[in-house]
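User: My instructor asked us to take a sequence, write out its structure as tokens, and then describe one feature of it. I'm not sure where to start. Here is the sequence I was given:
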Amino acid sequence: MTNGKRIDRSELSGGFAPRATSKQPAIAQAIAALSLFVAFYVATLFAGGYLSALAGVYFGQWVTLLAVGVATIATVAILEGGHWRLGLFVAPRLALRECLLGCGAAVLLIAAADGLVMLTTRLRHVAGNGFPWFELIAVYLPAVFHEELLFRGYPFQKLWRMNRLVAVAFTSLVFAALHGGNNAVSGLAMINLFLAGILLALAYARYERLWFPIGIHLAWNLLSGPILGYNVSGFVANETVFRTVGRGTPWLTGGLFGIEGSVWIGIVELAGVALLLRGSRLKSRSGLRLSPDPDPPIP
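Assistant: Let's start with the prediction itself. The structure tokens for your sequence are:
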């Protein structure tokens, strides 16, 4: 007996009838996008490496930058119709402002960590043999743009539109893992690299553009390595403005991995994360606001 009243199927199951959801298609789309991106990235990496080796001129960081560029353009063209707000192609004044803001933030963080290292160890800075201009072009600049496009570019942003916490956690883990084979890496260094991934992800979240994290990343590497004389994630520069000499416990100095292996870097990274979280857009997927404007094509 229904007494003329229409019965909802959810009432018959105690209000727990399955409902249609877009979660599964969204997850499937994200997996497909990441898989296609990785396929293009790896293929270009191998092809570029092989061709550069044949030519006898091998710039590894430029090959990786080419690989991530090809992977981004190809994946967006195939899956997104050529339209995606990457956060890279913006007005020059806006890009410069956010990049310089990132540089300033990195200077404060590295200066704080370096000061703490000097206070707690016998390390000191002495005059070096100059700035590595060649390595700036061959290593530092392409490395920063490669890593930001890889870890805060299209793959991160695709996950970001689905679930922001997943995007930050997953890409930060991969960011740390891919540095795991670097020279003199330690468990503490891996933790610090994971925190650095979170810091840079939140820097992207601040404006949802890439220039703020690019500024942080570039100034971080240049100040800690070519200027102050630490190794940068195990990489040893041929020239540095200052040299770091003396002795100290590796968990305080960072050892041969560089200042990024020091406990003090972890502390300043946590401080940076806390500051960025205060004004971040890191909310649940339900709180995500997408722009009503159509995404512009990637040039």
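For the description part of your assignment, you could build on this observation: The longest helix spans residues 23-55. Try explaining in your own words what that tells you about the chain.
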